[in-house]
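debug: dumping io for the single-chain case to check the tokenizer round-trip. Nothing else runs in this session.
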Amino acid sequence: MKKLAGLEICTEKRYSFDSLKFSSLLLLRFAFQSLGVVYGDLGTSPLYVFYNTFPHGIDDPEDIIGALSLIIYSLTLIPLLKYVFIVCRANDSGQGGTFALYSLLCRHAKVITIPNQHRTDEELTTYSRSTFHEKSFAAKTKRWLEHQTFRKNALLMLVLVGTCMVIGDGILTPAISVLSASGGIKVDHPHMSNGVVVLVAVVILVGLFSLQHYGTDRVGWLFAPIVLLWFLLIGGIGMLNIWKYDSSVLKAFSPVYIYRYFRRGGRDGWTSLGGIMLSITGTEALFADLAHFPVSAIQIAFTVVVFPCLLLAYSGQAAYLMNHQDHVVDAFYRSIPDSIYWPVFIVATAAAIVASQATISATFSIIKQALALGCFPRVKVVHTSKKFLGQIYIPDINWILMILCIAVTAGFKNQSQIGNAYGTAVVIVMLATTLLMTLIMILVWRCHWILVLIFTALSLVVECTYFSAVLFKVDQGGWVPLVIAAAFLVIMYVWHYGTVKRYEFEMHSKVSMAWILGLGPSLGLVRVPGIGLVYTELASGVPHIFSHFITNLPAIHSVVVFVCVKYLPVYTVPEEERFLVKRIGPKNFHMFRCVARYGYKDLHKKDENFEKKLFDSLFLFVRLEAMMEGCSDSDEYSLYGQQTLQSTDGLLNNNGNSTSSNQDLTMSSVDSIVPVKSPLHVNSTVMSSSQMSSHTETDELEFLNSCRDAGVVHILGNTVVRASRGSKFYKKIAIDYIYAFLRKICRENSVIFNVPHESLLNVGQIFYV
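debug: decoded output
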């Protein structure tokens, strides 16, 4: 901790893995740990791929070779080449997933749909972006995206669809992984009913979801050894089966057998791609869980352990099936040597649980990101680890996932239909990622258009082929993720639409500074001792609820602070850059604005220190303001706009650094102080010249402290949104019923801000959209 002019500032740094260099030993350690977090889902696919590829049995042994060839090249093209070596490089300071790609695009083009961005936000240390020539292809693409609101909304819809499919993965991965692992009991006890297997799977799932609130911090160290042991086992068993049953399956490395497979199988061969697709499930989770490890460690783990072990596992199963075609239903467990059957069963069940845990954690993470960007209703988010910021738990979502997961498991009762549903969800997420990556390559990487075209064309050819295959299985279970995604998409889009309309209302109805100045220092009211914190979504201007408040009540607090908590399209905002403070109106008005900024990975949790940090930032601002007045003739500082009504606003962050902003014609000039340098650089000579202003500073600080001691009241707007009378019926349903219901069941702002009920004041208002 450092002390800066009386303000304690946390100097703890958060580094992205991309910006750090690692020793070879440390890199290997990260690669080992990544197995448990990143590759659990991809590693458990051998449990169910061949059964879902041949749900009606195998007609020709050559089909096994063709299916194996498809699996080999699917693993090579999608996880290895596309994701591990290309997509993983498109991370947002180490963060992965669809919202990380979206945040990158939002920083490089003005495509964010809530226009609360400020030029000062671009000066954050985590707000990295590249610039490009005005006549370049990237600049043309940027202008094309920004030109119409429809394109911005289409981009957001693409991100939301991908997000909803990831949520679907969070339901289907535990269902198919645990059910497939539990199926091993029936292999050793063939007379056991399928209902017992389903019951065992449901018990495991209930236990898994019930333990989520403990987090993975305490047991996370077990994940990597379990998954490493799993990969070594399936790789070793695969080698044994190739040697024991039929080594000729290795000819599947020739792509000729893919052509023969489709020519022989016709439509049935084409639709079997839905089962082949399951061999690359977990690839999107690989990208979503990127934040935990450096990209190079993930690449080493995949190329050295995961990829060869998966190839051996699938080849071994194919070799076994060449001699036992009637065992395709449970090919994995049938191919295990009897002497190690039960140990492998235990490890398989543990690996399935680890895979499920990784997907559930990724679901929590992406919902948190959606919430931060105003695309999901406010839900309770809990930190489960003091060490790792990304480990969170969302109780409401956890129980919804559990209920849906159990419903899918008990409802379908077999792997085939769940597999069809799973494949549909996975391929749609991959298509969304491909389209977002196309924009990333143009706007962020500034690749040549030919390279962009090659990547996009190859990705779409492969993924659209899979997509066309899973469409044939929509009526065989593939409808499940579509229904789940549609429900979440309606919730997310309606919430986002309502949030945007509320912000637009705030923007259009904010109070002009001329009206405030016309009221005089007393604001035309009795100024009572105390500080009023007025929460608003506006980062500039005086909100409408303030005028609504002072026109209905005869008194206002001696000090008024407008507090804006906003999220930015960055993964985190460093603690020392969290707050921006500025003065509104002349000094005798005692009005300030404080903007608290967060990234999509940050958590505005129940923090008793939030109010303290806010006031510390306010006091620091007063000190720096007085120092700058005393140094106004020196070269160290500049003082702008003290007498004109239209001037450039200045915001001061709590690190003592100044940030300049755009003109705001509704704001007064008297709050526009812009320090050029931090006060840490002020020498003693300059300080002595400001003794005249120090007296004023002391008086104001004493006044602020006395008001703080008198009491702090939190004033929140309780805005009710209604559809206007002439609205179309679907808009009325969306706003008056869906959005109103979501507002009713979601968490109140007072709970999120941890406002004590005894000091809370709600100001109600209604507006029509």
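debug: round-trip ok. The longest strand covers residues 555-567.
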